[in-house]
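Endoplasmic reticulum vesicle transporter C-terminal domain-containing protein structure dump, as promised
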Amino acid sequence: MRRRQALKVVKEFDAFPKVSEDYIKPTTRGGLFSIVSITIILFLIVSELSYFKDSEILYEYMVDTDMTSTLKLRFDITVAMPCEFLGADVVDAAGSSKSLQQEVHKEPTIFELNKEQKAWLAAKQEVIRRHEGLRLLRDVMFDSHPQQYIPFPEHPQHSAPLTSCRVHGHIQVNKVSGNFHITAGQAVPHPQGHAHLSAFVPTNMINFSHRIDSFGFGVSTPGMVDPLEGTYVIARESNRLFQYYIQIVPTTLQMRGGSDLHTNQYSVTERNRAISHKAGSHGLPGLFFKYEIYSLMVLMKEVDRPLSLFLVRLCAIVGGVFATLGMISQFLGYILGFFKRTKSEET
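structure tokens r here:
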């Protein structure tokens, strides 16, 4: 008896409306809308499964308290000058001055690009234009199919004169503001810093047209592209100063597998001017990379999306599709009925 009373209470509590089968009339329009509804629902469910399978990226910002470690500066730059007339060194805000005789490798090469290299450079510039900063790093690190890094194709040497210089290598710099530069003349250290023997470089040999194939801080990650990569500049005058102001943001990536990657992202602004002592524009011709380090660190976490979110979105898809197409079906039925009644009245 109690069981029957409980079932009666449950039946009375049923909030879903019931329509007698005698009042239901199947139509071609209703069947067509049912097929369309099921097709749309299946398509959206597949899309939701793909969305749910992918991870979500959360961003956190915190103060970077690690000021004792060093940064690895990676660079690969080609300058349209002979190697014997170029010098490279770094100076930082801590007063450290380092002549890079061992860390920097200089190789004679050709500055002009062949057809394959021009195509590669254009593709690299397009990637950098569409993807900037942390978004690119996120896409590369957390994408299930990250793009593979394609090295700059080597130039066939043949019999062309090697009048340019490829300057590449990596150095450890202090985690403070600094200035890495490539200028005319070898660097000569002295008690108050260092100087460059630019006066001994023939004026007609000075040409700081340059191409940057690689310039980054920290671990080199396959597929990751830094903002300065793909830079290709032709100097209009021989005595010209190129300055790149770089803002470095320490970045840590935490992936679902538990492994962490510590690297650095940066933004850059560029300025160049002609050296003319008569006009009051002083300085040395060359490439100057002035970098500063933010005190904040970005933490990127890869997390799984909750199952409850998937279920809620699934219910919204099913209910929303049926409700929307049901209203469209009723509206079309009303329009068709109105025209039928109008036609019958005319006859």
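The chain has five helices and 15 strands.
lmk if u need the other ones
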